[in-house]
Amino acid sequence: MSLYHQPTHLLKALAERQQNGLLRKLSLSTPEIDFCCNDYLGFSKLGLLETKLQTTVNIAKSLEEKRNFFGATGSRLISGNSQLIDETEKQIAMFHHGESALIFNSGYDANVGLMSSVPQKTDLILYDEYVHASILDGIRLSYATHYKFKHNDIESLEELIHRHQKNFDNIFVVVESVYALDGDSSPLIELVDICQASKNIFLIVDEAHAIGVFGKQGRGLCNALSIEKKCFARIYTYGKAMGCHGAAIVGSEILRDYLINFSRSFIYTTALPHYSIEAIKHAYQLLIETDEKDKLQTNIAYFYSRSNSLRNFVKSQSAVHTMHVGSNDAALKIEKELKGQNIHARIMKSPVVKPGTERVRFSIHSFNTRNEIDQLLDLVSKFSTGKLLAI
Ligand SMILES: Cc1ncc(COP(=O)(O)O)c(C=O)c1O
């Protein structure tokens, strides 16, 4: 029994979750075979970024270089800005073929800051029904009208555009290039065509799961499809394949100036300290140099070749693959079996996902061995039969 004076609904909500088998808990023991984390290239897990950064930390001897190393001392607009951040942003913009880049403290902050500040009351946001919670939270904070369209369904999007375009000043179409939920990709070429056909429709693409995986030197899917300059804004996050933390919004100089002035999750927070900026800078260098990208591609191709024929797998060429299992009970059963073989994968239960679309999600990494992939697929293929949905 807690001694704290607190509202009763906290305990009630937790008890309800517990009863439904949905209580989230932080855990320290994770099984060893990793098909769960987002560190697709092993930059963090293999210590690759750490090794690269150690040199920088050791040579940061002068007081000037040590300044703001562990603490930015304030928001970018107050005391937290520096030449290091400005230069890193210029390098990010150049790498991603944009006019400008603006670093945010996380992908969550970037999406919330962008979606809540750019679309206005007289604008419309049309978003894929599967977009990430950070985009949804940003939309909730916006004064713009918003509707979701069916996942990856161009007809559903076009229908909404035709119905509503005349009533709004601008339309913002928001997608992920690679969906966190199933690892499938957006029909980006068609989306670009739709947005380019009207002067007031703008495309926003979250590349969180595409950076490091697709494109020249891991630049992302927009790069692979040569549409970088056709997107109004692109979001690159650094907590996944880049193995560190933070994010950047890449777009025009005007967009950057606007966000600096109006994006509250940029303005009202302490900036990232220099060690985080150094990590981002070095992660980009590592991304260019590393052969982990090739290892990842080999593993993705192998995983795909083996899982392609299995039932209930969503088609994906990315590092994220999912198997739809049909119920929370089935998801929990598979999770237990995976744990029994020391395999860590993520299960997604309802109501986080729609009832009936419960999934098990597998993240493929450069460091997964062929044996690990075989062990995983041998196990899950037992569930990928007609019997599955009846568990
Ligand atoms: C598509 C997508 N966008 C944004 C984010 C948030 O990024 P971050 O973890 O850097 O806050 C995530 C993280 O899960 C994501 O999957």
* End-to-end CA span: 38 Å
Question: Bound small molecules, which ones?
Answer: pyridoxal-5'-phosphate
Can you tell me the overall shape? globular
Number of helices: 15
What would your notes on this structure say?
The relative contact order is 0.16. Mean pLDDT is 93; it is low at 387-391. Helix content is 40%, strand content 14%. The protein starts with 7 loop residues before the first helix and ends in a 10-residue tail after the last helix. The radius of gyration is 22 Å and the shape is globular. With 391 residues, the protein is an alpha/beta fold. The strands form three sheets. Strands 2-8-7-6-5-3-4 form a seven-stranded mixed β-sheet, with helices on both faces. It has two domains: 26-41 and 291-385, Alpha-Beta Complex (Aspartate Aminotransferase, domain 1), CATH 3.90.1150; 62-289, 3-Layer(aba) Sandwich (Aspartate Aminotransferase, domain 2), CATH 3.40.640. Pyridoxal-5'-phosphate (PLP) binds at residues 106-108, 111, 132, 134, 176, 180, 206, 208-209, 237, 239, 247.
